[in-house]
């Protein structure tokens, strides 16, 4: 895959949620290859991943073990990343959980858990980095949403609702903090075949049906998403804010 160079990202302080696996791991590697100073959080130990990234890129990401639903711990991790690398100038809210669920089975506890992971953590991560971005003269926040709510699929109504809310949140934050040169955009992937997706959700019939809806008939890999993230983080998109960038092989049509 062609690797573009975003020279303005070299030396930037980047913070990624869920940056040690799936799409997040590809994002971490992409920023490391741009020469950025990358910190990331996730619940499980990512030491082996950091070792692999150091060997592959010559740079070691800062791993901070954290449950993003714990707002205090998330804020502390962002503070630690800022102490190590300088104020966060690029925030990538990537961590999410698309656990399948049926409406009639959803309990209040599950509903709250899903929103805590898929929406609350996004808001409070943004809240934590914004003062540093204001003081530094600007920054970029990339909020991962999904095309799921636009497709009208059944099987994950709370997750779909959270992703719709992420787009709305992104627009609201873009408006509120545009005067500080803080840009906030949503990135909406299609069905990216991470190992988790393959293990839990992919079936031959389901994949065939989804590909039939795509204009482009190739499956999406995590590496297909990283270019969009780098673009939204870079000054190449300096006048782009409050927008939703879709990378889905042509399933949904926006505009």
Automatic annotation (TrEMBL):
Organism ancestry: Bacteria, Pseudomonadati, Pseudomonadota, Alphaproteobacteria, Rhodobacterales
Superkingdom of this protein's organism: Bacteria
Specify whether Cell division is a keyword of the entry: no
Q: Which family does it belong to?
A: Belongs to the short-chain dehydrogenases/reductases (SDR) family.
The UniProt GO MF terms for this protein read: oxidoreductase activity
Family annotation (PANTHER family): OXIDOREDUCTASE, SHORT-CHAIN DEHYDROGENASE/REDUCTASE FAMILY (AFU_ORTHOLOGUE AFUA_5G02870), SHORT-CHAIN DEHYDROGENASE_REDUCTASE FAMILY PROTEIN
Q: What is this protein called?
A: SDR family oxidoreductase
Keyword Oxidoreductase included in the entry's annotation: yes
Ranges where the Ketoreductase domain occurs: 12-185
Q: Which key words tag this protein in UniProt?
A: Oxidoreductase
Q: Which CDD domains match?
A: SDR_c
Cited Pfam families: adh_short_C2
Task: Enumerate the InterPro entries for this protein.
Answer: KR_dom, NAD(P)-bd_dom_sf, SDR_fam
């Amino acid at each position: 895959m062609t690797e573009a160079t975003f020279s303005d990202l070299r030396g930037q302080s980047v913070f990624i949620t869920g940056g040690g696996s799936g799409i997040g791991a590809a994002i971490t590697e992409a920023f490391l290859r741009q020469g950025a100073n990358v910190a990331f959080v996730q619940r499980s130990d990512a030491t082996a991943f950091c070792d692999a990234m150091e060997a592959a890129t010559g740079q070691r990401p800062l791993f901070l073990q954290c449950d993003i639903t714990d707002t205090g711990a998330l804020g502390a991790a962002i503070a630690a990343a800022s102490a190590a690398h300088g104020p966060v100038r690029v925030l990538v809210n990537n961590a999410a959980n698309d656990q399948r669920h049926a409406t009639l089975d959803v309990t209040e506890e599950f509903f709250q858990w899903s929103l805590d992971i898929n929406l609350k953590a996004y808001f409070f991560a943004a809240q934590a980095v914004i003062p540093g971005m204001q003081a530094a003269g600007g920054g970029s926040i990339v909020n991962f949403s999904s095309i799921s709510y636009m497709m009208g699929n059944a099987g994950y109504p709370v997750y779909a609702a959270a992703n719709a809310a992420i787009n709305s949140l992104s627009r609201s934050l873009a408006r509120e903090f545009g005067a500080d040169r803080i840009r906030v955009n949503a990135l909406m992937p299609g069905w990216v075949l991470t190992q988790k997706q393959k293990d839990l959700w992919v079936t031959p019939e389901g994949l065939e049906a989804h590909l039939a809806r795509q204009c482009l008939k190739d499956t999406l890999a995590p590496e297909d998403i990283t270019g969009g993230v780098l673009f939204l983080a870079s000054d190449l998109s300096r006048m782009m804010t409050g927008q939703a960038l879709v990378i889905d092989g042509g399933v949904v049509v926006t505009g």
